[in-house]
Amino acid sequence: MKKVFFALSLSLFMFSGCDYLGSFTFKVENSTQETITLKFVNDIHKGSSSANRDENKKEVILEPNEEKVVRILDADLNTRAHDCLTTHGIARFTELIFDTYVDGVKIEKQLWQAENWTYRETSKWSGEYKMIITDEMIKK
Question: 67, 63, 42: which is closest to 131 by C-alpha?
Fold first, then answer.
């Protein structure tokens, strides 16, 4: 009986402190009539499971009225998925920093800022951020 109790106690202890692996999907929609290129400044962290995802390219080209997933980032979560970008700022998502080019010309506005993303929870452990690039955002 002691062995059964010990095994049960050990298994409860081992699994009680688990962190959950969640993911955050980042989508960008180009609602303009311009071709927009996003050139990401920071590499996805080497060795992370995020580094192997096809969506995490160094450069993303958005044709007029096109939407694409630009990043899927995995995150260790010890609570439900929530709006980490607004809460913690870009420090947690440095892989999102990009330079913006409109028809091949770099603009100086930093569109990657947290205020340009909207958040929605997609499951208990995952969330989705979306940015809609408008004409007003890319005006010089």
Answer: 67
CA–CA distance, 78 with 81 (Å, rounded to integer): 9
CA 49 to chain CA mean position, Å: 13
Task: Please say whether the beta carbons of 63 and 72 come within 8 A.
Answer: no
Give the pTM: 0.76
In the sheet that holds 98-102, the strands lie side by side as 59-62, 36-40, 98-102, 105-107
pLDDT digit string, tens, across residues 27-41:
999 999 999 999 998
* 3-12, Cβ contacts within 8 angstroms, sequence gap of 24 or more: none
Q: Is 72 in contact with 23 (CB distance < 8 Å)?
A: yes
